[in-house]
Amino acid sequence: MSIADQHIDLAQPHISEAGVGDFIELMKPRVMSLVIFTALVGLVIAPGHVHPVLAVTSLVCIAVGAGASGALNMWYDRDIDALMGRTVKRPIPQGRVSAPEALAFGVILSFFSVMTLGILVNWLAGALLAFTIFFYIAIYSAWLKRSTAQNIVIGGAAGALPPVVAWAAATGSLSVEPILLFAIIFFWTPPHFWALALFRSDDYARAGVPMLPVVAGPDATRLQILLYTIVLVAVALAPWPLGYFSAIYGVVSLILGGWMFALSVNVYRHRTGPEALRAARRLFAFSILYLFALFATLLVEAIVHSAIRFFG
What pTM was computed for the model? Predict the structure, then answer.
């Protein structure tokens, strides 16, 4: 190949081979679904009436903001994603999406989600969404995740903010109820992710991520899971006696909390062999159901009460 031919070849623009599905995968759709659901609950239980167009706009913006966080997280974590079995098939490690493409995609989604929410709904919600994205990328991904075993504890604040953003979108203000929803998700996050880390500890160790089982060992992690579960059950139950949520919610919370506690005790008791891994997997799987069922109870109650008011 001549020098001129090389020059022409280098001048050719890069043509992305990424498909739509790859960019959707960058947005972490499974995480997005949980964000949308918890935000929906925050939006529905908020007092007053929200115009349907503004409600849909708020949820779309929160979902896109969550997707932006996922894309930026995959961009930043592309080096460790390539080392972990759980993440090696993501679009960037597989070469289907380049790092600059992922960065540009995440930045564009961040900008438009925040600006749209601020302009069309209100700027308190827009500012909270911007802070959520910033916290997840700058505080959790870029700092905490690689520097401390408490990464999930502190970083969990980002995942707990969507119902707060939604409440602010509905009311233009904050109140005790969204803070309670935030607290539930915040204290749910450590036992949920540490259960995952117990049976994925080799992955994290290979990537050099200081998750608690890698740094403190599995036994210390099991104790922390049990302690955080106790706090979670208490925090999730508290809104009932405090008068913020109904007795129906309280009963559901008590049943789910008892089940969650029993599974965490099982994780604490079984420390070796296949049964230890099975116990961790069962807790991880149930923790997802726990959060969903807890928030679904609030959602169904709010819908029923609205229907009664409308038809009554």
Answer: 0.93
